[in-house]
Fold:
Amino acid sequence: MDLSEIYNHQNEGNDKATDALKKEFMTIRSGKVSTTILDNITINYYDNPTPLNQVGSVLATDATTITISPWEKNLLGDIEKAIMSANIGINPNNDGEVIKLFFPPMTTEQRAESAKKAKGMGENAKISVRNVRKDANNRVKNLEKEKEITEDESKKAQDQIQKATDNTSTKIDTLVKEKEAELLKI
Structure:
């Protein structure tokens, strides 16, 4: 393994951490409902656990309403039960044709709690980035120990690894600030 492979491995790890953070942010409810809140809900469809969006259309029809239109009407009851057992804090309204989920506007406390959750997610992403840095530094130190690189090259490599870590941490801070601003905006 050479230094460029170590840098590439670190960059991949850093990218994975920021991508995972962005995905995690999608699970936080903001002022406008998102269908991603239903992503982890599955129903038993012909003895297979199947995500809701694969048995019907799932749409956010306005800022506080999600409508689920199953392709087979006999699934309405199963979908309703799955939503109730998922405990997302909303009771489904089944009118015999579609299921509607009405989300009340978020309170200031809920917004603050969501912002706090986003900050925690950001901290977890930073921990991942620091672990990637530790791994990269250990690989560089092994190369130095094996006499494949000099002490100066090792020092330069560790400085470059730290710069990449700092850049990614700054990117994560920016993502968290943007998410907090979005969550706290009424």
About this structure: The chain has two domains: 3-27+107-184, 35-102.
